[in-house]
Amino acid sequence: MTPAGGARRVTRRAVLGMLAAAAARPGIAAAAEPIQTRPIPRTGEALPVVGLGTWRTFDVGSSPEARAPLAEVLQRFVELGGRAVDSSPMYGAAEAVVGDLAAERGLSGSLFLATKVWTSGRAAGVAQMEQSLRHLRARRLDLMQVHNLQDWRTHLRTLREWQQAGRIRYVGVTHYTESAYDELERVLRAEPLDFVQVNYSIVEREAEKRILPLARDRGVAVLVNRPFSEGDLFRRVRGQALPESAAELDCASWAQLFLKWILAHPAVTCAIPATSRVQHLVDNMTAGTGRLPEAGLRERLAAHVAGR
């Protein structure tokens, strides 16, 4: 896979500038192509294929100045058809920021709120989940996940009790590193789960060998974290023109190409890139529209990026 020979070099900065200008125009949400959705296997509920992570990006103070950009991100996210917002007590103030901003903007009813329990012991887990409900200003959460499998046996028992009582809708587990896949596989095989969240990107592919096929066989929805490998992907392609095939996939940026590569896997339900910038948000959400790469092209794109 080689960059387009005589094509104009399209940098992420240039694309983001164009997207930012478009995002500022009234009516863009109505004019944009609707974002694609995929069904949650257990219920068939449709979930947009691009969500919003909050790790680092939403961990800000209480000042209006600090929160204003995030309010715009959340607003635009909903306008562009987004629903799934993923957080955790591990992410500092992120839960409270999401809850406050969603309430202030009247967005709470439009969001699919996902968070995690990240502690040990039943009592501590219950207390933490109660706090998450308060922070997110929710009576019921859409998805509660056991963060990084911490004390998962204890917490899954509690989560099923809460699910039965109607306090949470879906139950899941998460991890972000390949070293945990042995245990993650055991949990997926042994437990009736609704969701699994796992790291997966064009350069972190072990999940497609072990976790994604198993999740599909078990009827488990997949949330993808680390879709840009914590920024490593952009460092790999810095200054490089998009490959010719990007036009075939309706891609105008590397971010869109990286996300479409993930979304082309049939087991993936939703990718959750985090951002605090509206222009990045618009760029990411655009990946949820248009064509996706077929298997052969996915392999060529992966080889191209790996060789950078």
Descriptive notes:
The chain is α/β, with parallel strands linked by helices. The protein has a single domain, classed as NADP-dependent oxidoreductase domain (TIM Barrel, Alpha-Beta Barrel), CATH 3.20.20.100. Helices cover 44% and strands 14% of the residues. It has 13 helices and 10 strands. The strands form 2 sheets. Strands 3-4-5-6-7-8-9-10 form an 8-stranded parallel beta sheet. Strands 1-2 form a two-stranded antiparallel sheet. It is globular, with a radius of gyration of 19 Å.
Keywords:
308 residues, alpha/beta, TIM Barrel, eight-stranded parallel beta sheet, two-stranded antiparallel ribbon, 13 helices, 10 strands, 14% strand, disordered N terminus
- CATH level 3 topology: TIM Barrel
Structural class by SSE content: alpha/beta
Contiguous helical run count: 13
What is the N-to-C succession of helices and strands? HHEEEHEHEHEHEHEHEHHHEHH
Q: Give the quaternary arrangement of the chains.
A: single chain
The percent range for strand residues is 5-15%
Overall pLDDT level: 91
List how many beta strands DSSP finds. Answer: 10
Write the CATH homologous superfamily: NADP-dependent oxidoreductase domain
Uncertain residue segments: 1-12, 18-31
> What CATH architecture would you give?
Alpha-Beta Barrel
Radius of gyration: 19 Å
CATH class: Alpha Beta
